[in-house]
Amino acid sequence: MDWLKLKIAEAIGGKQPINKNLLLVVGGVVATAVFLINGISTGGSEQQTVNAVMPSDQPIVKPASIYVHVVGEVNSPGIYELDSGARLVDVIFAAGGFTHHADQASVNLAREVTDGEQVVVFKVGAAPQLIGSASGGSAGAAQISLNRATQSELEALPGVGPALAGRMIDWRTANGGFKKKEDLLNVSGIGDKLFAGIKNQVTL
Question: Transmembrane ranges (predicted)?
Fold first, then answer.
């Protein structure tokens, strides 16, 4: 580049006339410098823009719909697709409503249903009842039948929510019922501590 500086100085000082080749060289150097500066500046801006729009965390997407199996005293038993967060009243409505023989008091229409749940609507007089103790104790000593209880009745047990009650019913269906209370330990989510807290409140 020293020769270029010398040529420019001589041309400016009048020692040498400016020719076209010299002008082309100077113009090329200036254009290259401008291009490089703009490229670095633009690249930095693009990098900042990309960094600004990249999300730090992916949003948690909840399932838009769930599937519930309803059987028993409804007009159209079957499997229904419902919006996530639907309640039992929505399930019954989708199944065409109760039949004339349905024991409507045996289900809690206000509770939220879960994906994969089975809802059983019994006939009047056929719904499982709380079974009293062998000594004919009071209602406070009543027990829930593991093999006949509905989802809502199982949820009444301490420490048992909708999801766990659903797994209890699934295990009961898949294994032909509970043969002994200790079978509860085979249900996912029931450990020794929870079993100890509910074993005296259930019966077969």
Answer: 21-40
For position 78, which CATH number holds? Answer: 3.10.20.600
pTM here?
0.40
Instruction: Quick: pLDDT tens for 5-56.
Output: 565 555 555 555 545 555 555 566 656 665 666 665 555 555 555 455 555 5
Residues 6+ apart with CB under 8 A from 95: 70, 74, 75, 76, 77, 78, 80
- CA dist 10 → 17, 22, 25, 29, 150 (Å): 8, 12, 15, 18, 103
Q: Which domain holds residue 40?
A: 2-53
Residue ranges in 54-118 assigned as alpha helix (H): 88-94
Q: Are 120 and 95 spatial neighbours (Cβ–Cβ below 8 Å)?
A: no
- Judge if 150 and 106 occupy the same domain: no
Number of domains in the chain: 3
Q: Out of 92, 109, 127, pick the residue that ends a domain.
A: 127
Both 204 and 167 in one domain: the answer is: yes
pLDDT in tens, 69-112: 998 899 999 999 999 989 999 999 999 999 999 988 878 898 88
